[in-house]
Request: fold
Amino acid sequence: MTPRNPRQGSDRIPAPRSRKPTMADVAAELGVSRALVSLVFRDQPGASPETRERVFEAAARLGYKPDMAARLLARGRSKVLGVLFTARNPHHVDLVEAIYPTAEELGYDLVLSAAVPSRDEHKAIEALVGHRSEALLLCGPTISEEDIADLGARLPVVVLGRHLKGSAAVDIVTSYDRPGAREVVDHLVGLGHRDIAHVDGGSRPGAPERRRAYRDAMRAHGLADRIRIIPGNHTEEGGQDAARTMLADDATLPTAVFASNDQCAIGLLDVFTRAGVKIPEQVSIVGYDDSHIAGLSHIDLTTVRQDVPRLARLAVEAADEQLRGAREPGATLKLESKLVVRGTSGPPTQR
Amino acid sequence: MTPRNPRQGSDRIPAPRSRKPTMADVAAELGVSRALVSLVFRDQPGASPETRERVFEAAARLGYKPDMAARLLARGRSKVLGVLFTARNPHHVDLVEAIYPTAEELGYDLVLSAAVPSRDEHKAIEALVGHRSEALLLCGPTISEEDIADLGARLPVVVLGRHLKGSAAVDIVTSYDRPGAREVVDHLVGLGHRDIAHVDGGSRPGAPERRRAYRDAMRAHGLADRIRIIPGNHTEEGGQDAARTMLADDATLPTAVFASNDQCAIGLLDVFTRAGVKIPEQVSIVGYDDSHIAGLSHIDLTTVRQDVPRLARLAVEAADEQLRGAREPGATLKLESKLVVRGTSGPPTQR
DNA sequence: TAGCTCTACTAGAGCGCGCTAGTAGCGCGC
DNA sequence: GCGCGCTACTAGCGCGCTCTAGTAGAGCTA
Reply:
C-alpha cells in the first residue's frame, strides 16, 4: 500500500486559479510593510493620504480582498454576529432583512445559519459559533431553555420573539402579546363574533403567551365558556391540520379563528377555502406577525403586526451592549404590536 | 493623558465569559500535544481508540468547540461553500433548504449571505468571499454578466436559475424554460384560452428565456397575433404593477396571464382579486417556480415546478467537481421542469 | 543484536492578518 | 544643541489551528 504521493493531501485545492492575493502581495507590490497595508484597510490613522491612495490602487489591481478568517483570528473580536433563523418562516426572513442595516451601522458583519428540516437548530448554532460569531441572535429558537441558558453562559445571546421562564443570562427582544391578542379579540367581538377559537402554536416561541392572552381576552369579554383552543403549530401544516380537525369535528365551526402565527393562519385559509368555507363570511381568520406574505399577496390576512425594524434594531443593539460590557445580560425588551385589519376578518353571518 | 491600560484596546472583548477553550487547553488538560487533539478532531488515523475517547471526554468537559476561522486559515481548503440568495424570494429559500443536505454529504460547510434591499449582491458576495468560501453558489444573481465572469475567474462559481450569453468560466444549473413555458401555453390553449398575456421579469434571471419560450409557444399555436407582453419583475410589486396596468388599459383583459415567476403571479392575484376580478373564472393565472407558497397556501397557484432538490444537488456537485479540478468550469446543466395544475387556471368564461 | 515495520505520538512551521512597541525623520521652541 | 511631539512608517509576535517531518517504543524477523 504505497500512497501515490503523500505530499498532496487529498484535501488540497488542486489548481488554485492564481492563488488569492494576500496583504503581503500588496505590500510587496508597493515596497512597503504589511502593517501599513493593514492600517490602510482598517482605516486607522498613521498613513498619509497619498499612501492610502496607492495602497487601494495596488489592492484593486491585484484583486486583493481582506481575508475574514484571518482577520477574525487575529483580532480579539470578530465583529461577527451569528443569526439563526428558520428558512421557511417568512417572519424570520423579515427579521433577517431588518437586522442587516443596524448591524452594518454598528460595524458588525453577519453570518446566517438556517434551520431547515434536514438540519436542526443545534447544528445551525454550532456552525455560527464555529464561525466565530461573537454573539448570537436567535430568531424564535425552539431549542430548550436550558440549551439557551448554556449558550448564554458561553457568549452573548439575544433571543427574538420568545419568552423564557427562567433567568437565563440572555437578552430577550419581543413584542407584548397581550395587547395584540386583546386587540384581536376586541376586533372580532366588535364585529359580532362570540365563537372565537384559537389555534395555538404548542410550545413554539411566543405561542404560550398568545394562548394565555387569548384566554384572558375572552374572559374579559365574558366569553369564558366560548374559549376553544385547537392544538396547532407555527407552520402551514399546523394550520391545515387544525382546520381539518375543526371541519371533522361534530361541533359547528367557530365564526372566527385566531391563529398563533401567519403561517398557521395561511394553512387554515388553505383548507377552509378548499372545503368551500367562505372567508370571512363563514369564518374570519386572524394571524400573527404580519409577515410580508400576509399583506402583499391576495392572502390579505388580518393579523398582528410586530414592529420588525425596531425589534431588529433593539436586538442588534442589545448584542452590542452585551459585547461592550455596557450591562449584564438578562434584559427583556418588549415592543408594542398592533392589529392590522385586512380582508380575512368581517362580521359573522347568521346561520 | 495617561491611558488607563494600554493593553486593553477598546475593541477587545471586555469580559469574555471565561475565555473560549482552545485545542491547547484540551491538550494541556490531558498532558498531550495539540497535534494529537487535532488528529482526533479531524478523525485522522494516528491515535489510539482510548486516547480518542479521552480527548473527546476532556473536550466535552471543557466545552471546547473547534474554531472554524482558525481551521479555515490553517487548512489549504476551507470546505466552505458560499451561498447567495435573495431573502424575499421563496424559491431561493427553497433552494437554500435543498442545498444543505448535499453540502453536508460532500463535507462542505455553508455560509449564507442574503441580498436584501439595503444590501446589494455585490456586498453580499464580498462577504462570502471574505469568509473564505471556496466556491460560490449564486441563486438567480442579478449582477452583470461581466461581474459573474470576473468572479468565475477568481474562484469556482455555480449560477442557479440564470442563463448567460457569454462563456464565463462558471457552471450553470437551471431548468429548460422552453418545455415548461410550452406546457403552460398548451395547458391554457387546451382550456380554450387564446388571449394569453405574459408578464415578464425584465432582465431578471430566467426571464428572457421564459419570454422567448412564451412567444415561441404562442406562435406554435398560431396565436402570434395574440402575443402580449406586459413588462414586469420577479417581485410581488412587479405583478401588482402589471395587473394595474392591465386593468387601466382600454383593451379588454386577457383571459389568461402567464407570469414570469410565482411572486409576480401572486402580485397579479393580489390586485386582480382586490379589483373583483374572479380567478380563474375571468382570468387564469399561471406562475413559475412552484415555490412552497404556491402550493401550500390558499394561493393554490398553477405553476411550473422546477426540480429544486436536483437543482441543488447538481449545483453543489458542480462546485465540488470544480474544486476537485475534476473538470473545467463552464458546464451548463439543465433539468426538466413540469406544469403543476392548481386552482388559478381554468376554462375561460364567455363574455 | 541489529534492522525493520508499525503504531502512537510530538515539534514546529506557517495560514493571513491585527496590533503593540518601536524607529526614523522632521519641525519647533528655548 | 537638546528634548519634545508629531507623522509616517516597520518589526515581529501571536490568534487557533493543520500538516509535514520526525521520534520513541513495541513487536517482529533473521
Summary: The first strand of chain B starts at residue 80 and ends at 86. Residues 6-7, 9, 32-36, 39, 45-48, 51, 70, 72-76 of chain B lie near DNA strand C (CB under 10 Å from a C1').
